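INFO worker-7 received task bundle
INFO bundle size: 2
INFO processing item 0
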Amino acid sequence: MSPVKPLPAESLATVCDPQQFRFETTVELEPLAEVIGQERARQAVRFGVGIQREGYNLYAMGPAGMGKHALVRAALEGRAASLPTPADWIYVNNFEQAHRPRAVRLPPAMGSRFARDMHHLMEDLSTAIPAAFETEEYRSSVQAIEEEYRERQNHSFEVLAEEAGRQSIKLFRTPSGFAFAPMRDGKVLGPDEFEKLPKNEQEQIEKLVAALQEELQGVIQQIPQWRKESRERLKKLNHDVTMAAVGHFIEDLKKCYADQPELTRYLDQVATDVVENVDDFRKEDGAETPQGLPAPKPTELHRYKINVL
């Protein structure tokens, strides 16, 4: 067996000739974008990202700091640069089934643009709708509807009171509603005075009061219907005012996306939902609406936000 030869000190390091380098210091060099000594790993990653079928995955394992993430990301970016730009995908609210949002496929970069446009739309509507309901024209229309409802009631009771008066019967309000009482010489008869009347006259007055009571009940039964009609008119007024404030904003945005049927349909649904939930826009933080409704929460308009994937 040959003896072991001693290793000289000069063999323990490689000496490079500085003249072979074309830089003064490494500061002048571009950072190295590759992982040193991982050629097989690079080949495996390139092979993996080149597979065009679904169901395949890459799993990178190794000690921390080896550059696994950088290696895979560089391979993906290089592969992506040679492929067509992928489509955008967004989620929009499903107004019929809120727990099942709708996915919409859009051309590249359109998803973010549409999300910005919807954000600006909500800002515009949050200003335009309250302003529309604060006009003198709107207030006058609401007052006219309420006055017509009150006049309808008052007129019906006045007609009934006049009819009762012609029969010497007085119609008056009580804490519990309305009541009739007989009169003589323009004065209401008290219970004792009524008892002093002849029996046949008492019976005649009681028949008159009974008939008037039926007419009174007929008027009272109509009040809920009149109130309903008044509310329907107010609802239609609010619908018309909202559409006038919202319509041109929605139409302008639809023109921008006229070549995207999914978005134009969605914008139509937004318009309908805004009209149905107009109070979400009429209320202001820390304030009350003209009808004294509570202030809104910021989350009430989140259903119009666009989720860009």
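INFO item 0 finished
INFO processing item 1
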Amino acid sequence: MLDQLRTIVVERLRFDTTRAAEMTLATTLPKGVEGSLGLDSLDFIELSVAMEERFGFIIDEGQDLSEEFHSLDSLSRFILAKMGQA
């Protein structure tokens, strides 16, 4: 799952492949968190769309997903749960 998320970050958010290779499950996502990827609200929208396309599920836009989108680990667990594999 981590490799698939790295690919999305590189392809859709245009991150450098070297930086993507350094990402671990502990990597945090939101802007303003020290050591995070520094994603802003538009990045999260793009990430959500890419996840829907790649993994084949719909994300409820009205749902507060700040915990699920906090780190690559929480995001991986969210994706697996949505896919029914968790």
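INFO item 1 finished
INFO post-check item 1: The CA atoms of residues 48 and 59 lie 7 Å apart.
INFO post-check item 1: DSSP finds four helices and no strands in the chain.
INFO worker-7 idle
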